[in-house]
Description:
By secondary structure, this protein is an alpha/beta fold. Helix content is 17%, strand content 27%. The two termini are 28 Å apart.
Amino acid sequence: RILCSSCFFINLPFNQQMMNRRKFLKNTTPVLLLLAGGGVSYSYTKPDISDIKKSKLRFAVISDGHFGQVETDYDRYFQGMMSQINGYHKQFPLDCCIMNGDIIHDNPAFTLKMPYFVTQGNHDMVSEEEWTKTWNMPLNHHVKLKRHAFIMATTSNQQGQYLCPNLAWMTETLEKYKSAENIFIFIHITPVKWTKNGIDCPDFIELLKKYPNVRLVCNGHDHDQDDLKIKNSIPYLFNGHIGGNWGTSYKGFRIIDLMKDNTIATYMMNPTVKIKEHVLESA
Protein backbone atom coordinates (compact mmCIF):
# COMPACT_ATOMS: atom_id res chain seq x y z
CA ARG A 1 0.00 0.00 0.00
CA ILE A 2 1.03 3.58 -0.63
CA LEU A 3 0.31 6.54 1.58
CA CYS A 4 -0.73 9.61 -0.38
CA SER A 5 -3.03 12.66 -0.40
CA SER A 6 -4.94 12.07 2.83
CA CYS A 7 -3.00 9.37 4.48
CA PHE A 8 -0.04 10.35 6.67
CA PHE A 9 -0.59 10.17 10.40
CA ILE A 10 1.54 10.20 13.50
CA ASN A 11 0.78 8.37 16.72
CA LEU A 12 2.25 9.63 19.93
CA PRO A 13 2.38 7.72 23.24
CA PHE A 14 0.12 8.71 26.12
CA ASN A 15 2.92 8.57 28.66
CA GLN A 16 6.22 8.46 26.78
CA GLN A 17 8.67 8.39 29.65
CA MET A 18 7.04 5.55 31.63
CA MET A 19 6.00 3.08 28.95
CA ASN A 20 8.02 0.07 28.02
CA ARG A 21 8.21 -0.95 24.38
CA ARG A 22 5.27 -3.33 24.46
CA LYS A 23 2.96 -0.88 26.18
CA PHE A 24 4.05 1.84 23.77
CA LEU A 25 3.10 -0.20 20.73
CA LYS A 26 -0.23 -1.20 22.31
CA ASN A 27 -1.27 2.18 23.67
CA THR A 28 -0.39 4.78 21.07
CA THR A 29 -3.01 7.47 20.53
CA PRO A 30 -3.61 9.30 17.24
CA VAL A 31 -2.74 12.96 17.77
CA LEU A 32 -2.56 14.71 14.42
CA LEU A 33 -3.89 13.64 11.03
CA LEU A 34 -2.33 14.87 7.83
CA LEU A 35 -5.69 15.00 6.07
CA ALA A 36 -7.15 17.52 3.67
CA GLY A 37 -10.02 18.20 6.05
CA GLY A 38 -8.00 18.11 9.23
CA GLY A 39 -7.49 20.51 12.03
CA VAL A 40 -5.32 23.57 12.32
CA SER A 41 -5.60 26.58 10.02
CA TYR A 42 -2.50 28.49 8.90
CA SER A 43 -1.79 31.06 6.21
CA TYR A 44 0.98 29.99 3.86
CA THR A 45 2.97 31.78 1.21
CA LYS A 46 1.79 30.58 -2.19
CA PRO A 47 4.52 28.79 -4.18
CA ASP A 48 4.93 31.59 -6.76
CA ILE A 49 7.88 29.94 -8.49
CA SER A 50 5.41 27.55 -10.10
CA ASP A 51 1.79 27.67 -11.12
CA ILE A 52 0.12 25.39 -8.57
CA LYS A 53 -2.31 24.11 -11.23
CA LYS A 54 0.57 22.77 -13.32
CA SER A 55 1.81 20.42 -10.63
CA LYS A 56 1.49 16.67 -11.23
CA LEU A 57 3.09 15.46 -7.98
CA ARG A 58 3.71 17.25 -4.69
CA PHE A 59 5.26 15.86 -1.54
CA ALA A 60 6.88 16.99 1.70
CA VAL A 61 10.11 15.78 3.26
CA ILE A 62 10.92 16.07 6.97
CA SER A 63 13.63 14.51 9.10
CA ASP A 64 15.42 14.51 12.42
CA GLY A 65 12.55 14.70 14.87
CA HIS A 66 14.63 12.92 17.54
CA PHE A 67 11.53 11.91 19.43
CA GLY A 68 12.52 11.00 22.98
CA GLN A 69 15.76 13.01 23.13
CA VAL A 70 16.21 14.10 26.73
CA GLU A 71 16.35 17.80 27.54
CA THR A 72 14.45 18.71 24.38
CA ASP A 73 10.75 19.51 23.97
CA TYR A 74 10.37 16.73 21.41
CA ASP A 75 6.64 16.21 21.98
CA ARG A 76 5.86 19.86 21.23
CA TYR A 77 8.21 19.88 18.25
CA PHE A 78 6.45 16.91 16.66
CA GLN A 79 2.96 18.17 17.33
CA GLY A 80 3.75 21.65 16.05
CA MET A 81 5.37 20.43 12.86
CA MET A 82 2.61 17.95 12.08
CA SER A 83 0.06 20.75 12.52
CA GLN A 84 2.00 22.98 10.15
CA ILE A 85 2.31 20.30 7.48
CA ASN A 86 -1.38 19.57 7.95
CA GLY A 87 -2.15 23.24 7.36
CA TYR A 88 -0.01 23.35 4.24
CA HIS A 89 -1.69 20.20 2.94
CA LYS A 90 -5.12 21.77 3.46
CA GLN A 91 -4.22 24.67 1.16
CA PHE A 92 -1.90 22.89 -1.28
CA PRO A 93 -2.70 19.15 -1.22
CA LEU A 94 0.28 16.83 -0.87
CA ASP A 95 0.51 13.42 -2.53
CA CYS A 96 2.63 12.08 0.30
CA CYS A 97 5.12 12.88 3.04
CA ILE A 98 8.45 11.23 3.78
CA MET A 99 10.05 11.08 7.22
CA ASN A 100 13.71 10.78 6.26
CA GLY A 101 15.39 9.32 9.34
CA ASP A 102 16.17 9.95 13.00
CA ILE A 103 12.52 9.69 13.88
CA ILE A 104 13.44 8.52 17.36
CA HIS A 105 16.50 9.25 19.51
CA ASP A 106 18.48 6.11 20.46
CA ASN A 107 15.87 4.46 22.71
CA PRO A 108 13.58 2.11 20.75
CA ALA A 109 10.87 2.59 23.37
CA PHE A 110 10.19 5.90 21.65
CA THR A 111 9.51 4.42 18.22
CA LEU A 112 6.55 6.23 16.72
CA LYS A 113 4.07 4.13 14.84
CA MET A 114 3.84 6.05 11.57
CA PRO A 115 2.83 4.00 8.56
CA TYR A 116 4.63 4.41 5.26
CA PHE A 117 7.43 6.40 3.73
CA VAL A 118 10.02 6.39 6.47
CA THR A 119 13.76 5.80 6.36
CA GLN A 120 16.08 4.65 9.12
CA GLY A 121 18.57 7.13 10.54
CA ASN A 122 21.51 6.57 12.86
CA HIS A 123 19.39 7.31 15.94
CA ASP A 124 16.66 4.85 14.91
CA MET A 125 18.44 2.10 16.82
CA VAL A 126 16.12 -0.85 16.34
CA SER A 127 16.52 -4.27 14.82
CA GLU A 128 15.30 -4.96 11.30
CA GLU A 129 12.58 -7.18 12.77
CA GLU A 130 11.32 -4.48 15.11
CA TRP A 131 11.50 -1.81 12.40
CA THR A 132 9.43 -3.96 10.03
CA LYS A 133 6.90 -4.80 12.73
CA THR A 134 6.49 -1.19 13.81
CA TRP A 135 6.35 0.51 10.40
CA ASN A 136 4.95 -2.33 8.30
CA MET A 137 7.76 -1.92 5.77
CA PRO A 138 11.34 -3.20 5.41
CA LEU A 139 14.43 -1.12 6.05
CA ASN A 140 15.04 -0.88 2.30
CA HIS A 141 11.86 -0.35 0.33
CA HIS A 142 10.45 1.25 -2.78
CA VAL A 143 7.07 2.24 -4.15
CA LYS A 144 5.70 3.60 -7.39
CA LEU A 145 3.45 6.64 -7.14
CA LYS A 146 1.74 7.56 -10.37
CA ARG A 147 4.58 7.08 -12.91
CA HIS A 148 7.36 7.90 -10.47
CA ALA A 149 9.55 5.72 -8.26
CA PHE A 150 10.31 6.49 -4.61
CA ILE A 151 13.35 4.61 -3.29
CA MET A 152 13.98 4.68 0.46
CA ALA A 153 17.13 3.03 1.80
CA THR A 154 18.66 2.59 5.21
CA THR A 155 22.05 4.18 5.86
CA SER A 156 22.50 2.92 9.42
CA ASN A 157 21.89 -0.08 11.67
CA GLN A 158 20.92 -1.03 15.22
CA GLN A 159 24.28 0.22 16.47
CA GLY A 160 23.80 3.66 14.90
CA GLN A 161 26.71 3.41 12.47
CA TYR A 162 26.96 5.69 9.43
CA LEU A 163 26.63 3.47 6.35
CA CYS A 164 26.38 3.81 2.59
CA PRO A 165 23.24 2.40 0.94
CA ASN A 166 23.33 -1.30 0.15
CA LEU A 167 24.80 -1.26 -3.36
CA ALA A 168 23.41 -4.61 -4.53
CA TRP A 169 19.88 -3.73 -3.42
CA MET A 170 20.14 -0.24 -4.86
CA THR A 171 21.38 -1.58 -8.22
CA GLU A 172 18.53 -4.07 -8.42
CA THR A 173 15.97 -1.41 -7.52
CA LEU A 174 17.27 1.19 -9.96
CA GLU A 175 17.14 -1.45 -12.70
CA LYS A 176 13.54 -2.18 -11.76
CA TYR A 177 12.63 1.47 -12.25
CA LYS A 178 14.87 2.39 -15.17
CA SER A 179 11.77 3.08 -17.26
CA ALA A 180 9.98 5.14 -14.61
CA GLU A 181 9.37 8.75 -15.52
CA ASN A 182 11.36 9.97 -12.50
CA ILE A 183 13.21 8.41 -9.57
CA PHE A 184 13.38 10.10 -6.17
CA ILE A 185 15.82 8.69 -3.61
CA PHE A 186 15.64 9.18 0.17
CA ILE A 187 18.53 8.33 2.49
CA HIS A 188 19.38 9.74 5.88
CA ILE A 189 23.20 9.96 5.86
CA THR A 190 24.72 12.38 3.34
CA PRO A 191 26.71 10.20 0.86
CA VAL A 192 29.35 12.82 0.02
CA LYS A 193 31.77 14.32 2.53
CA TRP A 194 30.38 17.83 2.00
CA THR A 195 29.50 18.23 5.65
CA LYS A 196 30.95 17.43 9.05
CA ASN A 197 28.54 14.51 9.45
CA GLY A 198 28.55 13.21 5.87
CA ILE A 199 30.47 10.17 4.62
CA ASP A 200 31.91 9.28 1.22
CA CYS A 201 30.01 6.66 -0.80
CA PRO A 202 31.79 6.77 -4.20
CA ASP A 203 30.30 3.51 -5.51
CA PHE A 204 26.79 4.73 -4.78
CA ILE A 205 27.50 8.08 -6.44
CA GLU A 206 28.89 6.35 -9.53
CA LEU A 207 25.89 4.02 -9.70
CA LEU A 208 23.45 6.91 -9.89
CA LYS A 209 25.24 8.28 -12.96
CA LYS A 210 23.97 5.26 -14.93
CA TYR A 211 20.31 6.21 -14.47
CA PRO A 212 19.37 9.55 -16.08
CA ASN A 213 15.87 9.42 -14.58
CA VAL A 214 17.27 9.85 -11.04
CA ARG A 215 16.06 13.39 -10.41
CA LEU A 216 17.23 14.03 -6.87
CA VAL A 217 18.46 12.58 -3.60
CA CYS A 218 17.04 13.78 -0.28
CA ASN A 219 19.29 13.67 2.79
CA GLY A 220 18.53 14.14 6.47
CA HIS A 221 21.07 13.98 9.29
CA ASP A 222 22.74 17.38 8.81
CA HIS A 223 20.46 19.58 10.93
CA ASP A 224 22.32 22.73 9.91
CA GLN A 225 21.82 22.19 6.16
CA ASP A 226 18.64 23.36 4.41
CA ASP A 227 19.62 23.96 0.80
CA LEU A 228 20.99 21.86 -2.08
CA LYS A 229 24.30 20.64 -3.44
CA ILE A 230 25.03 19.14 -6.87
CA LYS A 231 27.05 16.03 -7.73
CA ASN A 232 27.23 14.70 -11.31
CA SER A 233 24.28 16.95 -12.22
CA ILE A 234 22.07 15.32 -9.55
CA PRO A 235 20.70 17.64 -6.83
CA TYR A 236 21.13 16.50 -3.22
CA LEU A 237 18.53 18.25 -1.07
CA PHE A 238 18.75 18.96 2.65
CA ASN A 239 15.81 19.88 4.87
CA GLY A 240 17.16 21.02 8.21
CA HIS A 241 15.39 19.41 11.17
CA ILE A 242 12.09 19.31 13.07
CA GLY A 243 13.58 18.38 16.45
CA GLY A 244 16.82 17.82 18.30
CA ASN A 245 19.05 20.31 20.07
CA TRP A 246 21.13 21.75 17.21
CA GLY A 247 20.86 22.88 13.60
CA THR A 248 19.20 25.68 11.65
CA SER A 249 17.61 28.46 13.67
CA TYR A 250 14.14 27.31 12.58
CA LYS A 251 12.34 23.99 12.36
CA GLY A 252 10.78 23.42 8.95
CA PHE A 253 10.02 21.08 6.08
CA ARG A 254 10.84 20.80 2.40
CA ILE A 255 8.28 20.82 -0.41
CA ILE A 256 9.03 19.19 -3.76
CA ASP A 257 6.66 20.05 -6.59
CA LEU A 258 6.97 18.09 -9.85
CA MET A 259 5.45 20.11 -12.67
CA LYS A 260 3.71 18.88 -15.81
CA ASP A 261 6.72 19.90 -17.91
CA ASN A 262 8.84 17.70 -15.59
CA THR A 263 10.69 20.59 -13.99
CA ILE A 264 10.89 20.52 -10.20
CA ALA A 265 10.13 23.44 -7.91
CA THR A 266 11.47 22.96 -4.40
CA TYR A 267 11.70 25.17 -1.33
CA MET A 268 11.81 25.08 2.44
CA MET A 269 8.87 26.12 4.61
CA ASN A 270 10.07 28.09 7.65
CA PRO A 271 7.56 26.83 8.71
CA THR A 272 4.79 28.93 7.09
CA VAL A 273 6.97 31.13 4.86
CA LYS A 274 8.78 29.60 1.90
CA ILE A 275 12.51 30.23 1.59
CA LYS A 276 15.44 28.97 -0.51
CA GLU A 277 13.49 28.35 -3.69
CA HIS A 278 14.99 26.44 -6.61
CA VAL A 279 13.73 25.30 -10.00
CA LEU A 280 15.40 22.13 -11.27
CA GLU A 281 15.21 21.68 -15.01
CA SER A 282 13.63 18.66 -16.67
CA ALA A 283 15.83 15.59 -17.06
